[in-house]
Write a structure and sequence with these properties.
- By secondary structure, this protein is an alpha/beta fold.
- It is built from 15 helices and 13 strands.
- A 7-stranded mixed sheet has the order 1-2-4-3-5-13-6, sandwiched between helices.
- Strand 1 (about 50-55) and strand 2 form a beta hairpin.
- It starts with a helix and ends in a 19-residue tail after the last helix.
């Protein structure tokens, strides 16, 4: 069995993958609650002969499916969680399937399914004797809340991999050589004393005052943190009725920065601001780290191999009806929005001018930082890892939008998923069949870039996942 036979197998089983992706799109599940998705994918893999381990790191929707034996051990990451309030039909108008319901506005119904398909295709090559080693598909929950892989990494679930591959839906077919921002997700809580706001305000100690003073302090802090660092917050509890001095209030913060140590330094300064707000209002302050993740450490050796396989495939090929749907969707956000979104992905001008990207582009983004965060970063600091994007959405579509949900359930999304599955399978086949030369280079690069500091989980001892309601 040759590499082309693996790709032909994926073509022959395209209907299966599309059925799984559509099923997940029609039944979107929030982070850490992806029971149907995890069960469906793990059962398909188990029936194909994979050994499946479930309930990993005390996460009911995390699993690993493994086939083969011995080295090398290759991992393919999968995700399948959806986003709150992004329900949407396959339509060029904002038209929820059910108002307020979740939807796959980041295309994770496709992301995990392509990885599953690639693992199944490599199993065929192993069964034929064409390649040897171990292939693993990692069913990872809750990427949207940056939790699943971080909890799994803390338990050592990725530690013995020789290399890891993944992808993400987007508007281009390109290998990511850039990094992402490290992050802490923290809720700050204040407790004061309730009182009648008109008759006895002097007896009250307002927790809401503390939240507002903390937010003012954090806004002054923005001037004194690295330029690419970010602070975002919402007030998650502002009290009850206006005539009662709020005894409890809270604010939820995201702290992002180019490096993990920067996040930790900013977090320490932010806790001092919270303590200052507490002193000024005579309230009690506390905080809880809800999630934390590392910046992404890309591997250029693996990235070049991904790019080679993408170029051999030539990118997804769309039908005229899919191009027409892309043009209609693009009308909903306009050219100025389109250009800004693609600038964030470091896209060249020729891509921005397209409706759908059907080729493969190479971008030198090695010194760039994507203005987002992903728990893929934690895996990248444990093993050599590379990732790419496939043109799942019309050019200029923002992630986490109703337009992305619509495209992720359409023929555009399914064809991009098939291209991604082939890219992952072709790259894995190359790594398993070249005698270990590429893996040796990838490991040497990883060792040089990661340094001697090693990986330390950002999660505090005893931290438990926060299940989104």
């Amino acid at each position: 069995m040759k590499k082309n036979d693996v790709l032909v197998w994926l073509d022959s089983n395209a209907e299966l993958l599309q059925e799984v992706a559509r099923d997940l799109w029609e039944r979107p599940e929030l982070p850490f609650a992806e029971e149907h998705a995890a069960r469906l994918q793990s059962e398909i893999l188990e029936k194909a002969g994979f050994a499946v381990r479930r309930n990993l790191a005390d996460l009911p929707t995390a699993f690993v499916a493994e086939y083969g034996s011995g080295r090398p051990i290759l991992g393919i990451l999968g995700e399948y969680d959806a986003l709150a309030k992004l329900s949407q039909t396959v339509s060029s108008r904002c038209e929820p399937v059910r108002p307020g319901a979740p939807g796959h506005g980041c295309g994770h119904n496709l992301l995990g399914t392509a990885g599953m398909g690639a693992a199944l295709a490599i199993r065929q090559a192993m069964e034929s004797g064409a390649v040897a080693g171990t292939i693993r598909y990692y069913g990872c929950p809750a990427e949207e809340t940056l939790g699943g892989k971080v909890f799994m990494a803390r338990e050592g679930i990725f530690d013995d991999l020789d290399a890891c591959l993944t992808w993400h839906p987007a508007s281009m077919n390109v290998v990511w050589g850039c990094s992402f921002l490290a992050l802490n997700s923290v809720e700050f809580r204040f407790r004061g004393t309730a009182a009648h706001a008109a008759a006895a305000p002097h007896l009250g100690r307002s927790a809401l005052d503390a939240v507002e003073l903390m937010n003012v302090g954090s806004n002054y802090l923005r001037e004194h943190i690295p330029e690419q660092a970010r602070l975002h917050y919402t007030i998650t509890n502002g009290g009850g009725a206006p005539n009662i001095v709020p005894a409890e209030a809270s604010a939820w913060y995201y702290i992002r920065a180019p490096k993990r140590h920067m996040v930790e330094e900013i977090f320490e300064r932010l806790t001092k601001i919270a303590q200052g707000a507490s002193l000024m209002t005579e309230t009690e302050a506390s905080w809880a780290l809800l999630a934390g993740c590392y910046d992404v450490l890309p591997n250029a050796v693996l990235g070049e191999l991904l790019n080679k396989n993408m170029a051999e495939l030539g990118g997804p090929c769309f039908a005229e009806e899919e191009r027409a749907f892309a043009r209609e969707l693009a009308k909903s956000f306009g050219p100025a929005h389109k250009e800004k979104v693609m600038q964030a992905y470091f896209a060249p001008p020729e891509i921005v001018a397209m409706d759908l990207h059907e080729g493969v582009v190479a971008i030198d983004d090695r010194n760039q930082i994507m203005a987002g965060s992903s728990d893929v970063g934690d895996v990248s600091w444990l093993v050599p890892l590379a990732q790419f994007t496939a043109a799942t959405w019309p050019v200029g579509t923002a992630a986490h939008s109703w337009q992305a949900t619509a495209a992720s359930g359409s023929g555009i999304g399914f064809k991009a998923m098939q291209f991604a599955a082939k890219t992952l399978a072709g790259t894995a086949f190359d790594l398993l069949s070249d005698g270990g030369e590429i893996l040796a280079l990838a490991k040497a690069e990883f060792a040089a870039r990661a340094g001697a500091s090693g990986y330390k989980s950002p999660l505090p001892e005893g931290a438990k996942p926060v299940v989104q309601q």
